[in-house]
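ok trying this again, last paste got cut off
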Amino acid sequence: MQKSRHSPPLFIDTHAHLDAAEFDADRAAVHQRARAAGVEQCIIPAVEAANFDAVRVLAHAQQDAYALGIHPLFTPQATEAHLTQLDAALHAHRGDPRLVAVGEIGLDGFVPELNTPEALAKQLLFYKAQLKLAQEHQLPVILHVRRSADLLLKGLRDLPVVGGIAHAFNGSLQQAQTFIALGFKLGFGGALTYDRALQLRRLATELPLSAIVLETDAPDIPPHWLYATAEQRAAGQPQGRNEPAELPRIAQVLAELRGISVAELAAVTCTNAREALPRLQ
């Protein structure tokens, strides 16, 4: 008689820039490692009009999903024509089940040159315009939240959308609760693997499990085991490249912080991802 075996947990990486140049040399191998690690699907968000086609084609080639939007870091070079292009792409692919959101959009309060009065005004213009497109196309949004939670929330109150994900969330508990009340899930990834990330770890353990999704932000936000300090890099040790295959180990850290099994965390966060992005169903 055969022994029954438990299936390994499966994960959804809700934010991975797999079209990035860092993956050009071994993209197929990155995909294979992700699937071997139990990452059954990745969401690939666009960052500018120039990569709308790339993320769509890649998502179809890898059986993943994608989002279309203009990232706040790309607003300096963005034009009204790019918003028209986004609207056209959302319309053209409205029947594509792999198109799950408008994203990555939002606001960045960290980069100084993006926060001059003129640059911030342009960020806000593109953020609000893309919220309107999300409304019109009845799609959730994937939000870039970096020192910008209150302004983002104001925009969502003025221009409500059908929910989505606040990516790489690192705000206050009150801000987190407000996003949740507006129908959002909060993305957690490699940043919570650092012992010194006390506030983030507290958030990740105190928030309802039903509000959390997992992400890598590959190739960015490496977990602590891939991070090289400035001194180590100066000595010739390269910075490790983040990729979706790291997600189960990131999940292990969060599961230990919450005192639950990785299998439970994987199951609930996959359910949460499908609630946030219903086309994943």
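PB: full thing came through this time. The beta strands are 11-13, 39-45, 65-68, 99-108, 141-146, 164-167, 184-188, 212-214.
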